[in-house]
Amino acid sequence: MNLIKKLLEPHLRKPKPSDENALGFGRFFSDHIYKMNYTVEKGWHDSRVEPYGPLLLDPAALVLHYGQEVFEGLKAYRGQDGGIYMFRPRTNIERMNRSCARLCIPQLPVDEVLEHMFEFVRVEMDWIPRANGTSLYVRPTIIATEACLGVKVSHEYLFYIIVGPVGAYYPEGFNPVKIYVEEKYVRAAPGGLGEAKTSANYAAGLLPAEEAHAKGFTQVLWLDACDRKTIEEVSTSNICFVIDGEVVTAPLGGTILPGVTRDSALTICRHWGIPVSERRLTIDEVIAAQKDGRLREAFGTGTAAVISPVGSITYQGQDFAVGNGKTGELSRKLYDELTGIQLGTRPDPFGWVVKLA
Ligand code: COI
Predict the structure, then answer these.
(1) What's the 352 CA to ligand 1 centre distance in angstroms?
(2) Which atom of ligand 1 is nearest to the CA of 74?
(3) CB of 140 closer than 6 angstroms to any ligand 1 atom
(4) Which atom of ligand 1 approaches the CA of 75 most closely?
(5) 107 and 213 co-located in one domain
(6) Tens digit of pLDDT for each residue in 10-19?
(7) For a pocket test of ligand 1, which of 86, 95, 169 has the largest count of ligand atoms closer than 8 A to its C-beta?
(8) Residue 143 sits in the same domain as residue 246
(9) Cα 196 to ligand 1 centroid, rounded to whole Å
């Protein structure tokens, strides 16, 4: 499949954000969009880059009514040598295909998608910011576009990729966040959509997040849907606890997102000789460890959030400080290592980085 490029004349392109230290997350979008369509007759076809703009969708498009949609999140970086890099892009596109399988969306041709995504990022490379802690966020998305109000699997899809410069996901930046342990609402139940990267999982978290924000918290920590005891993840990332010198995180049991940053952080820890355990961990165990000083750190892991230190956990109305509310040593080391690998300033022993230009 060829990639067709219909690019804007340079004088029609948008000005770049003036302050790269105030980008926030997901507010700026580049000049172009990548698109590809699917029909049963043609499969995936018409791979193209065109000017960024609103989508034309039938109001009866299945995605708008029954949520047949999947997405991904990756980043492109400008390295110290001026080169353009992406981090584990194949892992994301392969995960997208697993999300597709759960949502009855046809599989993507991985090699072709990667090649076209790289070419699209090259087209938009002037949008990659240079300031410390910034990157170009890449958001591949698939939506069901067939017009039909019957509850059914769509026969038509649009795959698109948008990109834009981002800074830190949380307003706190790399400072520790306050987390509220959610006991009323749940994100995903066994057998549900929890391990797929699909909008429904994020929609389920909106009301709990609003309620938590109103109480002054940055994020909610999800417990399992059955007995509200086992730790799952945070709405925007996976979560790890450092207890008795061991990094403990929830196993990939079907209800949590198989995070690429989660896997990268665990791989680096193992490489450093730090014990890692992917096992069932209850909130009671975390609170007990905090009380007798064995809980040293907690941190979120996500593409958008990178490594996000947790400063306090609030459970049943009580606040429990983590690491005296300060960024932990391992959180800092992991952040430096991961971003170092991503920017090409540290060795890449696992072959995670792809050079695009
Ligand atoms: C990412 O980390 O890339 C995500 O997709 C999470 C989203 C909540 C921003």
Answers:
(1) 19
(2) 3
(3) no
(4) 3
(5) no
(6) 999 999 999 9
(7) 169
(8) no
(9) 13
Q: What is the CATH number of the domain that holds 149?
A: 3.30.470.10
Higher pLDDT, 173 or 223: 223
pTM of the model: 0.97
Query: What does the pLDDT read at residue 80?
Result: 86
For atom 9 of ligand 1, which residue has the closest CA? 304
Please list, in sequence order, all residues whose beta carbon lies within 8 angstroms of the beta carbon of residue 15, skipping any fewer than 6 positions away: none
Looking at the structure, do residues 159 and 184 belong to the same domain, yes or no? no
Supply the range of the domain harboring residue 198: 177-341
Whether 198 is in the pocket of ligand 1, judged by its Cβ within 6 Å, is: no
Shared domain check, 101 and 74: yes
Cβ(304) – ligand 1 distance below 6 Å: yes
Question: pLDDT tens digits, residue range 304-343?
Answer: 989 999 999 999 999 999 999 999 999 999 999 999 999 9
Does 218 share its domain with 333? Answer: yes
